[in-house]
Design a protein that fits this description.
GO terms for molecular function: dioxygenase activity. This protein has 9 helices and 20 strands. The protein is α+β, with helices and mostly antiparallel strands.
Length: 380
């Protein structure tokens, strides 16, 4: 049962439920009204600008009826209804102090123990069953990666993976790229060498936020794929040494790629990226593409390199890795702003042919949200 209290000047409304009080400013409530004159019923976009709301705005009356809250705003002299559950979900009155490096829902950080519950789905199931697709995409949103089995063994089948949730992001490598041994390759990914766990394309701004790798041939010995949760790496570094975490999140590294004719890509971003309120939102780590670091003050450079070294050691720790072998028709997807991926060395005998492409997490989140909105209706 909700109770409400209105401040004397009508600038703050307080809601109380089960002994817990949540406050809302009048201007926030008016700006976030969901009525048809404020938001388009067709697409939910706001129909008014802040300039359309009086600077002298105040709430003159409030009433709760069942699950609805009715507020009357002055000087409009207009009543608008609010869903109490919606207000509860969007409440912003909470303790402000959070330790830098906190992660938002539904992120769950992990280490090698995730091997016991590898986020995996069947390709045919996610293509035909919205519930299976929703579950797989939800796992990717939670863990930052997911594997698919049972896919077709055919050229560019990876495009069918991207079609499940979004669109290919084309780069200078094309709509997709081939990953197999080459003579005099332009990129170390095209050799049989093992690769340290890394994020892809840190020299781009913005980076592609999804990478898909799809197996078409895999008879060479070795070459297991490996993933490491960069967010868990950042948490471990922070827990070991707050100064090291701070120096890698406060100063920018530089990355560069100039391996192809007519292509010189550069970016300047921190290895550990935080939002202004301290939320952990990204990790960039790729030793092969690291350029000279020039944005760290002299007095902090030694600390920066100590932190950089330790971050690499944590990434290389076997206790952090989840590894798996892909067979033809299998693929995996990683959130390239969070999960580092690697490949163990493989022999020169046999064949190993993968195809890769890039996409973006906004499409995945959009598809997931749409499926989550639809599921309750489908159950009715």
């Amino acid at each position: 049962m909700y109770e409400h209290h209105l401040s004397d000047n009508g600038q703050v409304l307080s809601l109380r439920k089960d002994g817990h009080e949540t406050r809302f400013h009048a201007i926030w409530l008016r700006d976030n009204a969901q009525d048809a004159q404020t938001r388009s019923p067709a697409n939910g976009q706001r129909l008014i600008a802040l300039r359309d709301i009086s600077e002298d705005l105040a709430i003159s009356a409030a009433e709760i009826t069942g699950t609805r809250l009715s507020l009357t705003f002055q000087p409009e002299d207009r009543s608008i209804d609010y869903d109490l559950a919606w207000l509860e979900r969007h409440a912003y009155d909470r303790p402000a102090e959070r330790r830098p490096g906190w992660t938002a829902d539904p992120v769950e950080t992990w280490d090698s123990r995730l091997m016991e519950r590898l986020p995996t789905a069947d390709f045919g199931a996610v293509q035909s069953d919205p519930a299976a697709l929703q579950g797989w995409l939800a796992d990717i949103a939670r863990y930052g990666f997911g594997k698919l089995t049972g896919g077709p063994v055919q050229d560019q089948a990876l495009m069918q993976v991207v079609d499940l949730f979004g669109h290919v992001r084309e780069t200078n490598y094309g709509r997709h790229f081939e990953v197999r041994t080459e003579v005099n390759p332009t990129n170390l990914a095209y050799t049989g060498l093992g690769l340290q766990a890394h994020t892809d394309n840190p020299y781009r701004d913005p980076v592609p936020t999804i990478q898909v790798l799809y197996c078409l041939e895999s008879s060479a010995a070795g070459g297991e794929n490996m993933v490491v949760d960069g967010f868990r790496v950042a948490e471990r570094l922070r827990d070991e040494n707050q100064d090291w975490f701070n120096v890698l999140s406060r100063h920018c590294a530089r990355f560069e790629y100039a391996g192809s004719d007519g292509v010189i890509l550069r970016s300047r971003r921190p290895m550990i990226e935080l939002a202004p309120d301290g939320e952990l939102i990204g990790v960039r780590f790729n030793n092969r593409s690291a350029a000279a670091i020039t944005d760290v003050p002299f007095d902090e450079m030694a600390t920066y390199y100590a932190a950089y070294r330790r971050m690499g050691e944590i990434i290389d720790d076997p206790a952090m890795e989840v590894s798996f072998r892909l067979e033809p028709g299998e693929s995996f997807l990683v959130d390239n702003t969070r999960v580092l991926h690697a490949r163990k060395a493989y022999s020169g005998t046999g064949t190993r042919w993968f195809q890769g492409c890039y996409a973006d997490m906004d499409g995945l989140h959009s598809t997931l949200a749409s499926l989550q909105e639809r599921r309750p209706e489908a159950a009715e």
